Amino acid sequence: MTDVLVVGGGPAGLSAALFTAKNGLDTAVFDTDGTWMHKAHLFNYPGIGSIDGSNYLAVLREQVDDFGVDRHQDAEVTAIDATDDGFTVTAEGDEHTADYVVLATGANRDLAEDLGCAFTDDDVVDVDVTMETSVENAYATGAMVRAEEWQAVISAGDGAAAALNVLTKEKGEHFHDFDTPATAEAVMGSLVDD
Q1: Is the CA virtual torsion 86, 169, 105, 96 positive or negative?
Q2: pTM score of the predicted model
Q3: Are 125 and 140 in contact, with CB atoms under 8 Å apart?
Q4: Alpha carbon distances (Å) from 175 to 7, 106, 135, 139, 168
Q5: Is 182 left (phi over 0), alpha (psi -120 to 50) or beta?
Q6: Which of 156, 121, 129, 126 has its CA nearest to residue 144?
Q7: Packing angle between helix 152-171 and helix 11-22, nearest 10 degrees?
Q8: Quick one: how far is CA 103 from the chain centroid?
């Protein structure tokens, strides 16, 4: 059983996967590569002067790979169900289970609807500030929770918020992913050793 299943491999999904995997949770991502980022060029992402959307995704994918995320590229999730123990996701005919699920499917809200998540009057998935839906331990991020404000940096922030809430639940106290130069050296050293 995986700790966290992320459905969607754009900025929101990969951000969530990066945070959870970096902090020790077994994480899998299912990605059909249908993200709008392939049509984008980023000039408005803090810390990046200019980058093509596809190149940006390549960098994010490399980051999550470095932290051991089990990335299922070109794997479409066809069903998601809440169980007594968490969630079951069906992709490519196989079932995968996890304690938490992060939905990051852009403006496609079908899986959230199938899972029974509440929607707002604007017909977007209703979430709290941590991106948790009305279904406990199920999170929705990015364009699926906003009627219009669709930006890569906002989506990545949504993914990070969901991941930090998952980590807070797992650790039993408020969790902050804040590295110092000393911890950064240790993290980089462990990545080089792998």
Answers
A1: negative
A2: 0.89
A3: yes
A4: 23, 26, 21, 17, 5
A5: alpha
A6: 126
A7: 30
A8: 7
The number of distinct structural domains making up the chain is 1
By residue count, the chain amounts to: 194
* Contact status, residue 56 vs residue 49, Cβ threshold 8 Å: no
Q: Assign residue 111 the CATH number of its domain.
A: 3.50.50.60
Q: Does the CA dihedral 45-41-70-81 come out positive or negative?
A: positive
The mean of the pLDDT values for the chain is 88
129-160 pLDDT, tens digit per residue, is 999 999 999 999 988 898 876 667 778 778 88
Residues 6+ apart with CB under 8 A from 145: 124, 125, 126, 127, 131, 158
Under-70 pLDDT residues of the chain: 37-38, 149-151, 188-189, 192-194
Q: What is the DSSP string of 45-76?
A: STT-S-EEHHHHHHHHHHHHHHTT-EEEET--
Other beta carbons within 10 Å of 52: 13
Domain range enclosing 188 = 2-193
Non-local CB neighbours of 174 within 8 Å, separated by 6+ positions? 168
